[in-house]
Amino acid sequence: MKPPLFIVFNLGSGHGDASAARAAIEQACSDAGRELHLMEVPDPRRLAQLARQAVHRAQQVGGVVVAAGGDGTINAVAQATLGSGCAFGVLPQGTFNYFSRTHGIPADTAQAMQVLLQHDTVPVQVGLVNQKVFLVNASLGLYPKLLEDREAWKRQFGRSRLVAFGAGLMTLLSGHTNLRLEIEVHSQANEVRTPTLFVGNNALQLEQLGLPEAQAVDAGELAALRLRPVGRGAMLWLLLRGALGRLGEADQVVNFSFKRLTVRPVRAFAARRMKVATDGEISWLALPLVFCVSPERLLLIRPPAPAVERASP
Asked: Which CATH architecture has domain 5-125+296-301?
């Protein structure tokens, strides 16, 4: 007998039609004779709690935990599922869907349901920052500010890649400050000034930015990118290079790969926490920040030979 599905369905997540997605889920399970438990998220503040409940219920019956929503929903459910022994599935409802596209999971809900119903698990790499999961990327400095402004624009103008680009442009035009950080990697510590530090765990996104460290993710490492201090004009030029997939060629970009990276602020009176974005969600984490590859892998249901999308965003 096939295991039941416990689907954490975030109604307020992503840009698709929630009613149509729900109907596609129910129809696919009915056609396959598969037991379904649809756990709708009435309030985003309850997402983590419902994800833990889904994992607990799935553990009792050998079920599958599924995230239906955007990047934030997928991240929260993955956080609860990692290390639980449960299989993990994804029904992407977001704008970019880097995680699902990397693993060959279709954006169409009906097609993604067929992946859940027909395929087995494959262990996939997870990134951690202070034990907080990130499947696509984690960052601090300017990039979290870009994300906060982007979400504000999306609430006003809707979810699209054009809106995301416009929000990023306006954030850069408003100016930025540089962080003073001590970065320890490969047993060496260096003090740097940078507007942002970006850590990637998704080869597709890194390739689309034009970063050579994309291959490092496939080799079991994480990829880091930091920018040298630059003015507004240079920052706008870097944004354009990133959109064209040529960011890695810029002299203002320093990139490297690692399995463990420690970050501390350099201040006379150092703060105890720092704002960090993980898969688009903002949180405050205690210092120092430790980025690493998780020793445990996520048991993701996906096609055995994922067809990775290579087109630029």
From this structure: 3-Layer(aba) Sandwich (3.40)
